[in-house]
Fold these 4 entries.
Entry 1:
Amino acid sequence: MRPDQREQVRHNAKYLREVRPVDPEEINEYVEGQPHPTAVAQVLREEAPELGLVEREDGTFVPAPEGSADVALVRVDAFPERYVRVLEEALLERFGPGWPDGDSGDRLRARIREIKARYHRGLDVEYDHLTALGYAIYHLPATYAGAQYVLADLAGEGDLPASPRVLDVGAGVGGPALGLCDLLGQESLIEYHAVEPSGAADLLERFLDRTGPNVHSSVYRTTAEAFDPGTDADVGGSDGYDLIVFANVLSELAAPAEVVGRYLDALAEDGSIVALAPADRNTATGLREVERAVEREHGATVYAPTVRLWPGETPAGECWSFDVRPALDVPPFQHRLDQGERGPDPQGYERRDSPPGTPERSPGDGEFVNADVKYAFGIWRRDGRRWIEYRPDPARTARMADAESLVTERVDLAAVKLSHDLSEGDNPLFLIGDGSERVDHFAVLTRESGLNRDLAAADYGALLRLENALVLWNDDESAYNVVVDGETLVDRIPG
């Protein structure tokens, strides 16, 4: 379509959107030369982000929803079938119908072992095409679910726009992107920009093609360090991104806090940075180290979950904190790879591609099944807004920073619940924090009662008040135990 015709389509769409649904078959009558409605519809799709339009199933266009997203996510049960097909099509193209068996299956299994080992040891992972496929098989479903839960909580607080402008840094194969698109649904206008330098970008683009007509995506094949969030993406002269995502990437950056700080400047005034990390100790605690550096060096506000309840205080504990949600149905591609027939020399691949000492496993033993949804996360902002807007009364509440002087005393505390039950069959044990702690604090439930039941029942990230709790030093763990017994009252506090 000629530039003058395109401008006429835009002009008419701007007028009609305020009156009635924009119909390509109507607009073509007002455009010189009367281009075919299909051509008009294509122009409307391309211009939709600037015009603020979403396409409906009947082919007409209406104004995109404004304000905060209204979502009601209860749980994610399975990785969607349409995305399963995308991954299986990619595997078929690369290896053929017998991809889980023989040589191809052995290569994928060895590469997944390598990915897992390098992540746990805090080493870089080189994302060639084989690595991207292995990562998608093993990690994509759980990352998809975890991102949805975190973003649903953000939306529940009114802090996720219904039609967001998104920058996904180190987007990988697309877990957060797919989770966000499915969470907001087909009626939202999503302007999605991804930074991904590796072969994973090929698979990411295939997944994005299945997200629907109202997801307008751009993929930039460069590194997080090289990309300039202020100038390298065409964001239509906006005031910044509503959402910037760093998912499973901070541990791979040489200077993660510096990189996040630079992207913080590209965030809208009321926007959020969402950082996700695997739940293992190294990456989860590494996320907290980055969080504290971004807060200290770049002035970010920690929105969630490790809210600073006391003004001017910053925690110094290890804080191995992660959320746990219901497991997914096992994706069919994980089951097929786990059950696949090993080749004549599968251990040859293990010797070449897997870390030393990897134990030999039997087919079908679940080594390549990963349906558990466990993740560490942090949400950071520029505007001072926090998930929990609460300040303890210092006349009635002790600070965890003063725990050394409180050992063997009974005290009242305000605390955020930062774990699920960490015990192994003994007394229930929960990581807690108030943002002032110098070392980790654990609430130990020695005797449950109607007075303290909220400790176990409260969700991850909930704000609690503990009254008459006993503070003890745990020399074995170099941490404080806050004993919750029959004399202790625990109540949830509205944030």
Note: The first helix runs from residue 3 to 16.
Entry 2:
Amino acid sequence: MDDIIDVKGLVKTFGDIRAVDDISFGVRRGEIFGFLGPNGAGKSTAIKILTTLIRKDSGDVIIDDLDLQTQADEVRRIIGYASQEVGVDNDLTARENLYIQCRYYHITKERSKQKVEELLKTVNLVEAGDRKLSTFSGGMRKRLDLATALVSDPQILFLDEPTTGLDPKNRKELWDYIRGLNHQGTTIFLTTQYMEEADQLADRLCIIDQGRIVEEGVPEDLKAKMGGDTITIGFREDGPTILAKAK
């Protein structure tokens, strides 16, 4: 399987802070690839570089044979991005939010109408399509935000901590949507601080900390490598007698 994203020696600094510290990795076409790490590890900085939102200091990034440095406009046409912060307008309905997003991509009015209905169906918000977002739950807002990232039919979808702040039910629902998109052929790059989420979704992942990749592989292998502590509990022969006397 060929790599749709190829990163070599990526570096980004903010003053004295080396947020992304000489990292290299590849993302295979059609997979779900994850960056797992704590807050401040460099996950969001890396994803913002790949989505052309901030400039790298050094390194090489190729996305679907396009050079990020010299072909940023072309890269933007084939990617979608949903940030940690939901970027939808509370004063508009779900349909209005999606329609405006379609116009940003110069999609015709007729096609926009079709596209909006397709996306509402994809994220299971058809019945809530004419409600203002101020009436939406956190999970519904996240799903609509994901839909806005799909307007351009991206080959690669970048999701920056997509389930942060969601309850377990909404988190599982969003996982299902992400898997469904991937099964339709979309390559997905997600960041997360939840090991369970990485384990559930990622075909492969990198563990990143302090701007550096410390491990890379499939979740099963990484879990086996990390291992865990073992706690052994024993009971004294006179334990029950002592407990009985304590009563």
Note: Residues 88-152 form one domain.
Entry 3:
Amino acid sequence: MPAPHNPFKSRLAAGEALMGAWVGLADSYAAEITASAGFDWLLIDGEHAPNDLRSIMAQLRVVQASGSHPVVRLPMDETWAIKQVLDIGAQSILIPMVESRSQAERLVRATRYAPQGNRGVGAALARASGFAAVTDYIATAGEQIWLGVQVETRAGLAALDDILAVEGVDGVFIGPADLAADMGFGADLGAAPVVEAVLDAIRRIAASGKAPGILMTDPALAQQCLDAGARFVATSIDVITYALAIRAAGEAARALRDG
């Protein structure tokens, strides 16, 4: 029995544009609600949300049971952390702050068993193999793993062509917030030089045959990214969606009381 099919990987490889959302509330109950919204993919955030391995696994379970595909973002590019998140069942991962070809090559090796890579062999213990029920897991797992890397600094953009040349990198996500800050524009994602840099990077990634991705909550900017060739695009963040909605509800409640 081979490793489970990764529809996120195959759909992106076929050229589809997939719409997603950020899952940052770090709770499986909230993730289950978000998974009912019909997004193509959901990003379980281990970088800026208060997640650990067990909370990521709990959210993986509920998202995998839905029609959305889970992507896990780790907070770092450590081989041991990649090994752990793959073993708990993630098949699609996103790694932040990638700035060189050598770093990208190291990440690819971390997702593959020897001789192609250096992922530690412990599949018999792992949820990823159905606890040894997937008998051909080690031989077939690599084909179903999707690796995305984040380019979000001027150094990363300068190395973009080298990163795109790395076999095994399936997608490149442009991080507009960090890029805007690195370019000296603070939190202004809509600054003209930032938008120009983002769209140029998306076009270059698309031309390479890899999938370009981005998180953009501004609908007009998100549309520009799609028009430029972005193929995994997140438009919502659960934390912000909830915060805005509950604050509006509180304001409405106070208005009722106060007449």
Note: The chain has a mean pLDDT of 97.
Entry 4:
Amino acid sequence: MITKRIIPCLDVKDSRVVKGVNFEGLSDVSSPVELGKYYSDNGADELVFYDITASSDGRKMFTDILKEVAETIFIPLTVGGGINSLDDFDRVLKCGADKVSVNSGAINDPSLIEKAAKLYGDQCVVISADVKRVGGVFRVFAKGGRVDTGLEAVEWIKRCVGNGAGEVVLNSIDTDGVKGGFDLEMLKAVSDAVDVPVIASGGAGCAEDFVRLFKTLDRVDAGLAASVFHFGEVKIPELKKELQKNGIPVRVTF
């Protein structure tokens, strides 16, 4: 049985990790280098690094802090934010990323995923979708959740996977930072529609939320969270013990 992955997320702005609610009201948390090392040493399966204002600011990702993080950790690293071209893929991969997450860049140029998958392999290309309900429809948002693209989320994600994305990160704007649990309805719609790994993001508030996620949706491969890990509300070794107790397979290092 494939083990479920637990993935902390570093939302980085001005070289600091920040966190908000529903993608708004950002507050300072910590140094991404220190936090990345902590997670690498304490049982995280992977790490996600998002430069959360690169797309909305219309700039390239800050790579100095990314290099420091990559040099400090010993787990796979996925990097996103301001990825708009093959040159951007090349730049972050050379900084130490294992996978590259693309969101607004794919919306602006849908051929980007196909070109990147052919050049670097499907396993390197992650489609990250920021999704919110609008009039009862799952809609894709761009620019860090600021702009409604009008795209229906499930069809968009299916298209990206068809073009070569090897993994999906589904960010529910509705549940982001609220700590009321993952968006199971949205995750089911997406995981039923694609045959690549789906990572749940947005809404984790306690260990039970991860248990419920994996018990309810066996096709979801990983749970991603930020603030509950950053503020010590959920510690990854304890979370994995709880998952094991509930019959959910995880990688253990303790």
Note: The chain has one domain: 5-245.
